[in-house]
Structure of Heme chaperone HemW:
Amino acid sequence: MFDLRILRDQPTIKFDRQLPVFNWPHPFSRLESCVDDGRHIYADRHEALVRRRAVYLHVPFCETICNFCPFGRERYTSAATVEKYVDALVQEISLKQRFIGRCEVDAIAVGGGTPSLLAPDQIARIGTALAQAFDLGRLREFTFEAEVKSVSQQKLQAMRDIGVNRVSFGVQTFSDRYRELFSLDAHARQVRAAAAMITSMFDHTNADLLYGMAGQELGELDDDIAAITELGTTTLDVYPINNLSATSAMHRAIRRAGLGYLPEAARVRFRMHAEERLRGLGYSPISGYGFARTDSRADVAGPVQETPTFLYHDLVYGHEDDEIIGYGSSAMSRSPGVSLCNIDNRRAYVETVIGKKSLPHDRIGRCRSPERGVVTFPFRGELDKARVPWHQVPDETLNALREAIDADLVTDEGERYVLTRHGWLFYVNLMFHLMPASGKQLISQKMEEMEHGGRLTGITDLTNLMVPTEVATR
Ligand code: SF4
């Protein structure tokens, strides 16, 4: 089983190994197949415990397939296929409402795939279905993901009309060699034009940037950071490439180009470098890999800026009482005590919802997770102590938290725990460290499954970054 050790006496490198992934939903429970008309599933859900709720809609189509991308997606083939899928989404919203009622929602996210492939009238239909099914009186955030080639003024206006107040789009890199390597076929010119349109119409915008690609040099990361900050988005997601779940096409392209994978030690160095550059340019961390332009009204005294956050992510990586209701092929739902997965295959999903008028869940996990808010807190940067049912949290998580405080990864600030700068650098390792053993086993198993033929073994070692103990403790 993968495991890691906290290095208390090291000044910066606080773990002996680095997890080669950058997030996962907790609890990462074992899923069983489920055939149910909804009555039993929703009866098992501890609805009275729900404190905040998010809705997620998945749109799996993409015009082109980027080969580094780990998300559930497929190539766009026809407008008719998309129209049928939107019919199914609208139908699923109505089917589920019978079991969950007209409940309040705090955040909505439409992701994919490429939701900006939807036509303005399809965006409007989804907005109407959501407004009919949910009480949107306390909705604070409504995010739509966009891909730069498919963005248009009309689509952005349709998003605004249904209440979208945050648009996020992928840039990944401005480097010509990596854009070609990853099959990112939009030109940098198109990226800038779409960004200008999006930032002129929405107050809250986000752009994604990758780092740690095979063969990447720090100078190339500097160029990407300089270029992406010029787009003027309010936040940036700066995240390491996930070699384990990328397609074999990407690995073939890397081999053809003769590039070497960066070991985790180098990727940690890249992360430290990116954070320094971004802080120098007026940004502060807001989540595991999110940065926001520093706002004079925000609290930036600590290592984490508190506003603007990405509320949907705060719920996905939130507490046991944060509920996510997912719609669309492969969408996940998570309620206190129950996790549900929709059918992955888009055709089977549409057939189940439209043809059989049935709920499209095919896997279920049942487990309570009172420790969830503690395990996921390194992604959010702070933990409100009042939200945790401490008497139910397993001892192994409590002991791990104490160890993290002793190692200067976490500080106790009275009513909350807060990540230090060191903790921030290793938020993924900390999440793993805080998990009960059963969760660690499932993550390890998943990583082993993803390690194609041992191709990437040995990349997790951080020991060559360590300072000799006598120097570190001086
Ligand atoms: S990165 Fe975005 S556009 Fe590219 S394949 Fe993945 S979901 Fe589609």
